[in-house]
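Entry for L3IBWBLD complex. Fields follow.
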Amino acid sequence: MVCCEEHQFTNNFFFRQLFDRDSCTYTYILADTNSKEAIIIDPVLELVERDVSLIKELKLNLLYCMNTHMHADHITGTGKLKELLPGCKSVISRCSGANADIVLDPNDRIKFGKHELIARPTPGHTNGCMTYILHEQGIAFTGDTLLIRGCGRTDFQEGNPETLYNSVHNEIFSLPDNFKLFPAHDYKGQTVTSVWEEKLYNLRLTKSLTEFIHIMNNLNLPYPKKMVDMEIDREAVISIGNINFTIKVVIKYPEMSSNPNLTTTVNVRNRPTISKKCNDLLDCNDIRMICSKTKQCQCASFHTWNNETTQCIVDVKKLLLWIRKSSSNEEETVKRASDFIVKQTETHTILIPTWNDFQEIKENGTQQVCIIVLPILFGIILFLYLVYYCLANKH
Ligand SMILES: N[C@@H](CCC(=O)N[C@@H](CSS)C(=O)NCC(=O)O)C(=O)O
């Protein structure tokens, strides 16, 4: 059965779907063939060179790097594209919380030549998910909200099955039946679907809301091969010797330096060891963590699990112990420690704790112990001796 008349692209419209085999991500390049103005949707960092060479070959003028949401499974190529093709602007929804040259509100428009994308919020996989619609071509880019016969998972980040269900039904299924839908991922080799097909055959979204929520809460999907870590940003005061320190634990996102325009978008490290439990302090090479609403986090040895927030919370004392215990390999210790920023309360100096810093802290503590405790001890001994001397002489 076929739905209805297929939309054909107009003559002045260029469309290219590109694929990343590692994360199964689709990147799209769209352009006006007359003006050569172009946009890219969901570029992947590792494949930016591929995208740039195509853009250059076709003599396109890249105006915007659009992101459908903050990806959990790969680093956006936006920052690198901006470096390689100066003039192009980063774009993401305001609700994503990421910094970009342009942050989109509902129904904002992005123009390239004679064409125009309209941004429609479709939260549920993340708060900031947006579907980009190109009405005149009859297409929409659904990001991770709607996948072919499926949908984005809702068990981490800011996922919420009910919100996702409403987004799809209200904002995507309300488009004309013959609109083609292009997702951000496909894991089975499919490339495109349509509103009509998904309304009929989507394995999850054709169900009632209650059934859908049940399905989503029991997907038990493995984590994506590449997984972005959540940010922890927490302060606590601890004492080493006599000095109080405010330890600020910040998961540093490597793309912050390389990608200042999309600071919170992504960080990624290969994470094949997710099922490994960190029992031993030295066992935990990876200082980061993964959280899930349905499963307990894989906490590192310096984390404690918080049931309320369903997060691994950094225990600063354990953290310091962990850094110090790694001392058998100083280079590695320094590397690990540099992921933390330590602020000394009194002076407010920010320092990256190297091994030497910790030795210094220990020594400072010891010095203070010597300066204060030893004279007191000496005084007590002298006092006791005098008492003894007086008592002895009295007799
Ligand atoms: N089974 C997949 C798992 C990858 C995955 O979790 N993908 C995300 C989008 S990237 S955060 C997702 O929402 N998936 C939904 C789904 O039903 O798969 C793999 O092969 O890696």
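NOTE: The longest strand covers residues 13-20.
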